[in-house]
Design brief:
The radius of gyration is 20 Å and the shape is globular. Helix content is about 35%, strand content about 10%. The chain has eight helices and seven strands; from the N terminus they run ααααβββββαββααα. The strands form three sheets. The chain has a three-stranded antiparallel β-sheet, with no helix packed on it. Strands 2-3 form a two-stranded antiparallel ribbon. A hairpin with a 4-residue loop joins strand 2 (about 125) and strand 3 (about 130-135). The N and C termini lie far apart (about 50 Å).
């Protein structure tokens, strides 16, 4: 934009990659494009690859068991780590057709401001640095157009959850009530909790009636009330996830699995 060049001709013509899908640039661009960018900028290929969600998540998730201090098994599946698929696409597939989101404070000096890769994650709804919800935004050469009229504060449970995800992405670890775990373990745990929620919200199973189906749903929906329907849909899974973790840590619902002690109730 600074040089009056649009993204499509930059990628297809100047960088010589006519077959690249523009919508996948942040997600999973092909190696030939990454190699061209690396050559043009003098940056190592692996560093360029980590500026995409595919590269970032492959780096975080595709770790050996020896590299992870704690490995969660919240569903008691009994699968060895190397047999458990850790698919980074589950974290970004929901955003393929959604608008870009941003933090008003982070982008206050646009165009001299960066669009952060973490804003593309469906499991992250707010900016941990400024305590504001991420909002849909359109980018133009010299201005931004926000869908909402003003910024929105972040619910406490979501602030804690997003802060942990941010720590996983930037520090490589997350501090939980039961101790510090690797980023690998955090995202693996989130995936498993979502699996549990998907089944338990429909069928509480062996847990006491209502423990998951009603308690988690009520806690999340209280914070979703009054929002437009599209906003509710976009935030629902993450709000359920943050609410479930908060309820486990407060002792309202029991953590499950052999590593449940890391989500044990917080002593006040």
């Amino acid at each position: 934009m600074a040089y009056g060049l649009k993204l499509r001709p930059l990628v297809h013509q100047d960088l010589g990659c006519p077959s690249v899908e523009i919508c996948k640039l942040d997600l999973n661009p092909p190696d030939d494009l990454l190699q061209t960018v690396a050559a043009r900028t003098g940056t190592p290929l692996e560093t360029v690859r980590k500026t995409t969600l595919a590269g970032l998540f492959q780096y975080i998730l595709l770790r050996s068991a020896e590299e992870c201090s704690v490995l969660f098994s919240l569903c008691d599946r009994g699968l060895p780590v190397d047999e458990l698929q850790l698919n980074w696409e589950q974290w970004i597939k929901l955003f393929r057709k959604r608008p870009l989101r941003g933090c008003r404070s982070c982008l206050s000096k646009y165009p001299d401001a960066a669009v952060l890769l973490a804003w593309r994650l469906p499991v992250m709804l707010s900016c941990p640095m400024h305590g504001l919800m991420l909002e849909p935004v359109r980018f133009y050469p010299n201005e931004l157009k926000w869908r909402n009229d003003k910024s929105e504060a972040v619910p406490e449970s979501l602030s804690l959850h997003d802060g942990r995800t941010w720590s996983a992405l930037t520090n490589g670890y997350v501090d939980l009530p039961g101790g510090r775990v690797a980023a690998f373990s955090w995202f693996r745990a989130l995936g498993m909790i979502l699996d549990v929620l998907d089944s338990r919200l429909e069928d509480p199973g062996p847990l006491p009636e209502g423990t998951w189906k009603e308690t988690v749903r009520d806690a999340a929906c209280d914070q979703l009330d009054g929002m437009p329907w599209k906003t509710k849909i976009a935030r629902m899974d993450t709000m359920f996830l943050a609410s479930a973790i908060g309820l486990m840590e407060r002792g309202t619902i029991p953590p499950v699995g052999m590593d449940a002690s890391y989500f044990s109730p917080v002593e006040v």
